[in-house]
Amino acid sequence: MAAGSELSARAFLTRVLEPGDATGGRWVRELGAVTVARRLRDGGPRLAGVSDKRWAGLCGRAAQADPARDLAAAREAGVRFVCPGTPQWPAQLDDLGDARPLGLWVRGGPSLRLWALRSVAVVGARACTEYGAHMAAHLAAGLADRGWVVVSGGAYGVDGAAHRGALGSSGATVAVLACGVDRPYPRGHAALIDRIAEQGLVVGELPPGDHPTPSRFVVRNRVIAALTRGTVVVEAAYRSGSLVTARAAQRLGRHTMGVPGPATSARSAGVHELLRGGATLVTDAAEIVELVGDMGELAPARHGPVLPRDLLEPDAREVLAALPARGAATAADVARGAGTTTDDAIARLYELRSLGYVERHGEGWKLTRRAVISARAGQGGC
After folding, report:
1. 278-301, pLDDT tens digit by residue?
2. What angle do CA 324, 330, 333 make, to 5 degrees?
C-alpha cells in the first residue's frame, strides 16, 4: 500500500469518524485505514460494533467526505497532516490504544514529536480568578525558561494565561484544539492562536473547517494528557473539563499535579479533590520539573530565612536558649539550663555579649532586646 493512500485514507476517516471513536480505531487496527475507508465509501456490509442506523450515518458522512479537498485546504492554510507510524508522530499517543487519533492536523513549523518529548500540560478553569491566571502564566513562564514545552487547549482563562506565559518568555507552546486548526476557537483567541502557530504549534484531530462541539472538547482532553509527561491543574471546579484531562493523565500513568487555591474557593474545589485523590501538590515550575524531568532535576530545598542566631555555634545557642525571656539569671543557673559547666557558660555568655545578644547586670545575665526579637522571629512571630 502506498504511503499516500494511507495518508489519504486517514484524512478521509477524520471527516467520517468522531475523535476518540474506539470502535472505528479497532476497525483501523484490524483491517487497516485503507480498507475501512473503502468500506465506508462504498457503503458495503456493516462492520462489527455498530448498529445499522449508526452505520448508515457513517456512510452518509463518507459520501460527503473529500480527502483531496481537505488536504489541499490544509496546504493552503499552512497545515500538514501527521499520521501514526511516520517520523513526526508522537509515539506516546499510541498509549490511547484504539482511541488514539487517526492522525493530527498540525499548523506551525516545529516537529510535534520532538516537542512532545519534553512537554507539560497546564490546564484549568475558563472562568478563572486573577490568582488562577497569575499562577498559570507564572508556571508556564518558568517551564519555558527551563526548556519545557507548555501544552494547553487554547481556551479562555487558565489555558490562555498558560499560552501567554510561555510566549512571553520566548518559549515553546502547543494549543490542542477541538476544531479545525485553520479556524481558531474561541474567536476571541484568534490572535493568540495565530501567534501560537507562528512561535509554536496548533494541533487538532478534526479536518480543516470543522467546528467544535461539547463532546469534542471532552475527548480532545485525552490528547493533551497523552501528549505530555504530566498535567498540572491550576483552578477547577468539581465539574471542570480540566479534571477530565487530569484523570486521563492518571489512567495513562502520567504525572498529575494540582496547584492549591483558597479552601473557600469553589473554583479550586476540584483541584483540592484531585490532590486528596493522590495528585501531587506543586507551587512553581521547579517542583513540576522535579516530577516530570530527568534524574537530578531537583527543586531547591525550601526553608525560612537564615537568622543571625542560626550562625552561632551549637554550644552558644544552648546557652542563649537557657536565658529566661524576662529578667536575669546567674551564670550557674544558665549552666544548669544549658547542661554545661559554670566556667563554660561564662565563656559563652561573654561571646554572646560581644555579639550583642546578652547584657551583664551585676551577678546576673539577661537577653538584649535584639535577642528577644530574634527569638520571636525564629518561632514564626509567635
Report:
1. 999 999 999 999 999 874 555 566
2. 70
Sorting pLDDT into bands at 50, 70 and 90, what band is 3? Answer: very low
pLDDT of residue 39: 94
Does the pLDDT value for residue 53 go beyond 80? yes
Architecture of the domain delimited by 308-378: Orthogonal Bundle (1.10)
Cell representation of residue 84: 501514526
Region 267-279: what's the mean pLDDT? 95
72-87 pLDDT, tens digit each: 999 999 999 999 999 9
CB atoms closer than 10 angstroms to residue 245: 32
Fold topology of 91-292: Rossmann fold (3.40.50)
Indicate the pTM of the whole model.
Answer: 0.80
